[in-house]
Amino acid sequence: MVSQLKTQKNIEPVAQVLCEKVKGLRKSRGWTLENFSEISGVSRSMLSQIERGQANPTLAVACKIAKAFSISVGELVDEPWTSSAIEVIRKSDPSFMYRNDSQCKIRTLSPLNMEKNIEFYEVTISTKAQLQSAAHFEGAREFITVEKGRIEIIAGVDSSTLEEGDSAHYRGDINHRIKNIGIGDAVCFLVVSYS
User: Fold this and answer.
1) Structure pTM?
2) What letters, b where the CB count within 10 A reaches 16 and e where it falls short, cover 144-164?
3) What is the pLDDT of residues 20-72, one digit of tens each?
4) Alpha-carbon dihedral of residues 32, 33, 39, 40, nearest 10 degrees?
5) What pLDDT score does 82 carry?
6) DSSP label at 58?
7) CATH classification of 94-193 is 3.10.180.10, yes or no?
8) Inter-residue contact 151 to 180 (CB < 8 Å)
9) Where exactly does CATH 2.60.120.10 map onto the chain?
10) 6 near 55, Cβ under 8 Å?
11) SS3 call for 18
12) Which of 53, 109, 173, 176 could be 120's S-S partner, Cβ–Cβ 3.0 to 4.6 Å?
C-alpha cells in the first residue's frame, strides 16, 4: 500500500491544494472516510494521510479519487487550464442516480463536485407512491414543476394538487412529501434551495 503514494515532509503547493480539495469534496457529500474508501477503492488510511497533507498520491490513486467525485484529475487540483468550461451530466451515468427503487427514482442534475446552495433533480414517482422528506435546514425551499402526471404536494399541514406544466414552491424546512395521485409515473423537476 505504501508504494501507492509518496510521503513528504514538505508537501508541495499543488499537493496542498489537492489535500484541501479532497477533504472539502468528501465533507460536502457527507461521506465518512470509510464511505469514501468504499466508493474510491483507496484505503481509509491512505485517504486520511492525503487529507492531512502527509502524502502525495500517485497518478493512479489521484485518478481513483477523481473518479469517485465524477471529476477530472485537473479539476481535483483546481487547475483551470486542465478542465473544460462545460460539464455534462449524462443520463446514463449511474453516479448521478441518487435513488432508484420501486417507489421512486431521483436523478441529480446538478454537479456533484461543486459546493452549492442549490440542488437540481429529476424525480420519477411510481403510481400511488410518494416521496417523503424530513425537514431540511432552516430556510430551505423547494421549487417543483410537473413534467408528466398529477401530484399532490404536502408541506406541514398545507397541500396542493399539481397537473402537467404546473409549478409550485414550498417550505423545505418542515416535513413534506410529494405524492403521485395520477395514473402512471409522475415526472417532476425539483430544485432545492438552501440559501
Assistant:
1) 0.58
2) bbbeebbbbbbbeeeeeebee
3) 888 888 888 888 889 999 989 999 988 988 888 887 788 888 888 888 888 77
4) 150
5) 52
6) P
7) no
8) yes
9) 94-193
10) yes
11) helix
12) 109
Are 19 and 52 in contact by the 8 Å Cβ rule? The answer is yes
Q: Which long-range contacts (CB under 8 A, 24 or more apart) does 70-79 make?
A: 70/95, 70/96, 70/112, 70/113, 71/113, 75/113, 76/18, 76/21, 76/22, 77/14, 77/17, 77/18, 77/21, 78/17, 78/21
The segment(s) of the chain belonging to CATH 1.10.260.40 are: 2-82
pLDDT at 78 > cutoff 70? no
Q: Which residue has the higher pLDDT, 114 or 124?
A: 124
**Shortest CA distance to 113 belongs to which of 159, 153, 70?**
70
pLDDT one-digit tens code per residue, 82-122: 556 677 788 888 878 888 999 999 998 987 666 568 889 99
Q: Where residue 80 falls among pLDDT bands split at 50, 70, 90?
A: low
C-alpha cell at 184: 402512471
Measured between alpha carbons, how far is 144 from 133 in angstroms, rounded to an integer?
14
Nine cell digits for residue 35: 464511505
